[in-house]
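Reopening this ticket.

The earlier resolution said the output was attached, but the attachment link was broken on my side. Pasting everything inline this time so it's all in one place.
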Amino acid sequence: MALPSKIIVTRFSAMGDVAMVASVLKEFAEQYPSVSIIMVSRPLFQAFFEGIPNIKFHSFYPKEKHKGLKGIIALKKELASEGADAIADLHFNLRSRILSALFKFSGLQVKQLDKGRKEKKELTRFPNKVLKPLKPTVERYADVFRQLGFQFVLQNKLIPNQLPLPNLAHALFANDDSKKIGIAPFAQHPYKVFSLEKMQEVISYLSHNNVDVYIFGGGKTEQTQAEKWQVLYPNVHSTIGRFKLKEELSIISNLDLMISMDSSGMHMASLMGVRCLSIWGATHPFAGFLGYGQTLSDCIQVEHPNRPNSVYGNKSCLCDGTEAIDLVSSEMVISSINQIIQKKGS
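Inline output:
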């Protein structure tokens, strides 16, 4: 059977997962430049795919015209006009499965993500936890293309992709002599968030040691916190509410290092080819969500028999009465940063 020449790829959410898809598609486009991709996701995430050749972005509006079964049928009609010959469902949720089924009835080849739920349940259960590295999520995405017949090999390496700074960011990078470190201190679930008091200690240390610090991510509450740090410490810059996602990616691409929770900040750094120190609590890199091209040695965590207790970090993970993320100290984070900075400076 001939390889597909035009593939509809679906991944509707969440931000970090869609950023991982972009890293995978960037490599796929290099290895198969004659294959066209129709990427279906929320409009906010279009920025992740800009600059990747042979990708056309199709916006998905789950609360508006694509809401419910009627909306998915409407989406199918929109996509049918593209003339694709295969579907790569990289989400495998109810909506994407219904869409895939509709296309399958139309005769298209459909391959879908295996989320590895059984292995993840074994990794997070207690007792009798099976603590071993599971297949990385990016490899699970690549598997869907392999099922379509492609000999697709992920290099899983960070490839620097430095972009021009947005005009408003030039002043934030005016000091040519300082190190540039981004921090994405927030996450959707509180059990994945490093103590803000400890993070403040890290920020204070960096700002007084010739480092420009750039705070990313979050809504109004997080913006208020980031702006407090900006007022308290020299060389600290909040990007929240000031830049669009595309501009944030450009800023990240100019960093020496990113510091992030197990969250989208890490995956955005990967997409831009930037090294990331990641901090882990209730979750664990063994679950497969380590950023593309990032290394286990750059994961800051304290091992405990109760960890991990969830894949997404949506449940409290107490370790001898202490939340798992609170086992990590500010000194551990600062030490890891210094090791990297000193290596770069030598």
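Reporter confirms the inline version is readable. The CA atoms of residues 213 and 236 lie 5 Å apart. The chain has ten helices and 13 strands.
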